[in-house]
Amino acid sequence: MFLWILDRYGYGKIIYMERIPEPELMDTFEQARAYAEADFDEPNSLFVNLFLEKFNDITITSTILDLGCGPADIPVRFARRFPECEIHAVDGSEAMLFFAKIRIQKEPPEIQKRIKLIHALIPTDSLPLNKYDAVISNSLLHHLKEPDSLWKTIKRYARKGAPVMIMDLIRPETRQQAAMIVERYSKDEPEILKRDFFNSLCAAYTIDEIKEQLQENQLYSIDVSPVSDRHLLISGRL
Ligand SMILES: C[S@@+](CC[C@H](N)C(=O)[O-])C[C@H]1O[C@@H](n2cnc3c(N)ncnc32)[C@H](O)[C@@H]1O
Asked: Is 14 part of any domain?
């Protein structure tokens, strides 16, 4: 539910529904399978295109870190777009990594050998490299109990000046709006996926909340802005 309150000048201000956290890991087999089989072509191509746009057709010849890689569709797209890069694709869910492995095996050996799947929980588990040349993450932030898990991991692992790009959902103002977004974009998807999408919208952060997180973590060179009716983009160089 959302509320209108009037401030002392009589102007209305929207109070968003409170965030409803969801479990961090997508670790049931059924949940991971529904996610892996869903069609995320539109947001995932948007993700790659925004990366190219934000970082001016950058060429990456070393290692990209993808946090919360899920079924690895985005790592595959990056491996195709940047033929000289390697990607460390990290997820805490073995079920998700099972589907990521199947996804990668469909690619030519040249792509397969450049994507390394890593079973690790952020921010506690350590990652193979000391520093990475770019950090990306799609739809992880809203899963985290503590958003600082993401900001601390980025500060720990991105080299100075590295491009950082995170896309996530924006929490709608009301549960009704969340339900409408689910119907608009996932009408024909299985129930389990629609349920997860609804829960994710309710667990997502607002742009103002993310601005505060960035300030508190002294990530002054990173900005946040909306990029679709349901997505926001957090990007900049560390
Ligand atoms: C909604 S999925 C997004 C997957 C992928 N990035 C994509 O865009 O298709 C979020 C993923 O983050 C993983 N995850 C959540 N919390 C995590 C944590 N603390 N450490 C590592 N992975 C995590 C989940 O298991 C899940 O696979």
From this structure: no
